[in-house]
Specification:
- This protein is α+β, with helices and mostly antiparallel strands and 455 residues long.
- It folds into two domains: 90-120 and 320-451, no CATH class; 126-313, no CATH class.
- The chain has twelve helices and twelve strands.
- Helix 1 crosses helix 10 (376-394).
- The two termini are 18 Å apart.
Length: 455
């Protein structure tokens, strides 16, 4: 049932988009030949001539279109006819072409306002993270840190914690022996080494057969905890440095030693790098019974596991009164827009691989699951997000999309005349073929994800 609801909601969003084009055209008293609900694939379920507009409902409901007399060969209008869309002023055509995007943005805002008004709150995008259980009995530093069940984790390595991904990812990035180290820990280890070995400077090669004192280090027994690293890993790698081959070889010699005899090939700084890849502490700050407590450092094991099971509680923003509803809804949509734009940036720069792109099948499945598990509130917010996504994607300057038409119109305005019709057709055909290829790809990804139960 939830999947059917999601399909209906998606169909409504597409209808809203096309209605935006239609109403804008009628505002300028433009002639519209056809208004189609659904795509002209398979049988037409219903059609009726209403005034000069033929309204059609197609069997394949996930789509829609507004056709102008230019596209209807049956009308055979003269080339200079004012009924032709191409003969209208550029500004009118710009408004009509952009109206679908505008309609989806307005629709998204209305849905969010409705959700905020009916449920009396909105998600903040922030979460309170609590220690539900300490599940790694063999992880010595967990017990020594002083952490307890029910602690609210508020700070991680000096950074405020508002999402579970920050905690999980930092734990994974703290795993040993992967050739990546945090600059802060390198500096800390160098200072400890310098105190124990004051005779040597940072970049001085330590003579062969000299005994080097190593700072005390902690290790962990292997612990298996099923916890995936969430997406967004890259932003936690900003402070990371890579080890040289020499530093990696040095790291592998350290293990549990308290002393190291120099072979005359490394500096105190190399040793600091090697130590940083062998032991990486995580510093947590928690709130317990209203008091902020700074815990002793925790050392994840070689798998990057701390041994904590977390409980995540979403922080909700109350929306009481019209002003709070409108302001909170607008802020929520602005934040979601920023996230969607960043997601597109990651796609175009290759940071999100093509195999991770999904389409209508995945949206329907995930949307249905969200309605089942989280209720209609989350379902409405997802619908608003999809409407916003439709607006943003459609406004991309790609031929065959609204944004592509806007680009052609802007070029026409700057040149004082439209581009050659044949050129526009060729570019439009190429853009359409790219979109078809992309649709095939996302449908394949969706089906594969369903078969492999990744959705």
């Amino acid at each position: 049932m939830s999947i059917i609801i999601m399909l209906l909601l998606l169909s409504v969003l597409i209808l809203v988009h096309e209605a935006g084009h239609f109403l804008a055209a009628k505002m300028f008293k433009m002639r519209v030949a056809r208004f189609g609900f659904g795509l002209p694939i398979g049988p037409t379920l219903w059609e009726k001539q209403i005034g000069d507009v033929k309204v059609l409902v197609h069997a394949f409901l996930l789509g829609g279109y507004v056709a102008f007399p230019d596209d209807d060969k049956e009308l055979d209008l003269p080339k200079d006819s004012p009924d032709r869309f191409m003969n209208r002023p550029v500004y009118q055509r710009l408004v009509v072409v952009s109206a679908g995007v505008f309609a989806n943005v307005v629709c998204a805002f209305v849905i969010v306002v409705l959700a905020a008004a009916l449920w009396g709150h909105m998600p903040s995008g922030k979460y309170d993270i609590y220690v539900k259980d300490i599940v790694a009995a063999k992880t010595e530093s967990i017990w020594q840190s002083g952490i307890e069940k029910g602690d609210k984790i508020v700070e991680l390595n000096g950074i405020p914690v508002t999402t579970s991904s920050a905690l999980i990812t930092t734990s994974q990035l703290s795993k040993k022996n992967d050739g990546k180290v945090d600059n802060r820990f390198v500096n800390e280890n160098y200072e400890n080494l310098k105190k124990l070995n004051p005779a040597f400077t940072k970049d001085e090669i330590i003579p062969k057969d000299i005994l080097i004192k190593l700072p005390a280090r902690k290790t962990e027994a292997p612990v298996v905890l099923s916890q995936n690293v969430l997406k967004g890993l890259e932003k936690y790698k900003d402070n990371q440095l890579s080890l040289s081959d020499n530093q990696k070889n040095l790291r592998d010699k350290l293990t549990e030693k308290k002393y190291l005899i120099s072979d005359g090939t490394f500096t105190l700084n190399d040793l600091a790098y090697a130590l940083s890849d062998n032991t990486r502490p995580i510093y947590l700050k928690v709130i317990r019974e209203g008091k902020t407590i700074e815990l002793s450092p925790i050392y994840p094991n070689s798998e990057g596991i701390m041994g904590l099971q977390m409980e995540i509680k979403e922080v909700l923003i109350p929306t009481k009164g019209p002003k709070a509803i409108i302001v909170t809804s607008a802020k929520y949509l602005w934040e979601q827009t920023s996230m969607l734009l960043y997601g597109l940036y990651q796609i175009f720069t290759g940071k999100i691989p093509l195999k991770d792109l999904h389409g209508i099948v995945a949206i329907t499945k995930v949307g249905g699951d969200i309605i089942d598990t989280s209720g209609m509130f989350s379902g409405l917010l997802l619908t608003a997000l999809i409407s916003l996504d439709l607006a943003i994607v459609n406004f991309l300057p790609i031929p065959a999309l609204d944004g592509g038409h806007v680009l052609f119109l802007l070029i026409e305005k700057l040149r004082g005349r439209p581009l050659n019709e044949e050129t526009v057709d060729k570019i439009g055909t190429a853009g359409f073929m790219i979109l078809i290829a992309l649709m095939v790809l996302v449908v394949f990804n969706d089906i594969y994800a369903l078969i492999t139960q990744k959705l």
